[in-house]
Write a structure and sequence with these properties.
UDP-N-acetylmuramoyl-L-alanine:D-glutamate ligase, 9-stranded mixed sheet, 4-stranded mixed sheet
Length: 345
């Protein structure tokens, strides 16, 4: 079977953004001044990003939605962007997952209330790879999929079994995670690493997994480039087949199975360019996954990733800032890239 395409699974969320006049104390009232909604969750964001970037391969979604209007809106939005929704199951047992994000107009400070909903019920039984011809399988996010994150008596998680099945079916497996407090954070995440080809995460999550901060103490909190490279190599050593990518505001590093470590600085954006950071991490992942699908060298994948993340920052919504991949790359070329703190800038 000649494989082509991305099957992205896991968290499908609707983000509801509300601008308020102030954040109230308990039992007090605040006014909602404006509100919008948009896509949320790794697979939903990445699929929509790739559609807007003009990916020349099939895109398909897999996950669990509630039997409600919010679920209907996700299906309609995916279909409007050419994303196959056959793998999106529905359940009456829980609502479609959503997040209410409240932003105080005068300060920009945000508070989030998340309904895990149907995502928490997503289980290995919802996946069937027997007829799939997709080349890449993405799962996200670890730590926000309650059933799949649960560690069983054998030390395995549902996520690890789903990834094992996807790889056995012939797909390249990719996953990432979310920054959250979780009682089994390290054990649950590490259970999946032997079944991953690529693991994409940020420096906070990587630091939690390796037990050290990846920011430089006493240096304004700057990134520890060498430390990130070491952490990525350590995570590769836990069984990741191809490589581990750690991204952060300053850029990214990638460590691959042969021990090579690559660095890529972020785009030097001018003052006033950034209108919002929501979704930038998933845009980064979309750029990298595109390169993985196309078989590009790691440095090219990283350049695509930071360029897509930069373009995402041009709009306060999750995906509306994205445009064709050529435009993302042109943005990077126009403004240039910050130097990476590794030998491969």
């Amino acid at each position: 079977m000649e494989r082509s395409g991305l099957l992205a699974a896991g968290n499908f969320i609707v983000d509801r953004f509300k601008i308020i006049d102030y954040y109230p104390r308990e039992e007090m009232l605040a006014s909602i001044l404006r509100e919008t909604s948009g896509n949320g969750g790794g697979p939903y964001n990445i699929l929509k990003d790739l559609a807007k970037m003009g990916a020349g391969f099939p895109l398909a979604a897999a996950g669990l939605l509630g039997d409600d209007e919010t679920g209907d809106s996700i299906v309609a939005d995916c279909e409007a962007h050419g994303i196959d929704t056959t793998g999106l199951s529905r359940t009456p047992a829980a609502p479609t997952s959503y997040t209410d994000a409240f932003t105080v107009e005068s300060t920009g400070r945000r508070t989030f209330f998340h309904q895990r909903g149907a995502n928490s019920l997503l289980a290995p039984a919802h996946f069937d790879f027997s007829a799939s011809s997709m080349r890449v399988f993405y799962l996200g996010y670890f730590m926000l999929l309650e059933t799949l994150d649960r560690v069983d008596v054998s030390g395995r998680t549902g996520a690890s079994r789903v990834l094992e099945a996807a790889r056995a079916a012939g797909m390249v497996t990719v996953a990432d995670m979310v920054s959250i407090e979780h009682a089994d954070f390290v054990r649950a995440a590490r259970a999946s690493l032997p079944y991953l080809d690529w693991f994409i995460l940020n420096e906070v999550e990587a630091g939690k997994l390796v037990g050290r901060s990846l920011r430089v103490a006493g240096d304004g909190g700057g990134i520890d480039w060498a430390g990130c490279g070491e952490a990525a190599l350590l995570l590769v050593g836990f069984g990741v087949r191809c490589g581990v990518v750690i991204h952060f505001v300053e850029g990214a590093v990638a460590a691959v199975a042969d021990g090579e470590v690559y660095g890529q600085g972020s785009v030097r954006l001018p003052a006033g360019f950034i209108r919002g950071a929501t979704g930038a991490g998933d845009a980064f992942a979309a750029g990298f996954i595109h390169g993985v699908h196309e078989g590009f060298p790691v440095p090219v994948c990283l350049r695509q990733a930071v360029s897509a993340a930069a373009m995402c920052l041009s709009d306060p919504t999750t995906s509306e800032g994205l445009g064709p991949l050529a435009d993302c790359l042109a943005l990077g070329e126009e403004y240039g890239f910050a130097p990476a703190g590794l030998r491969a800038d």
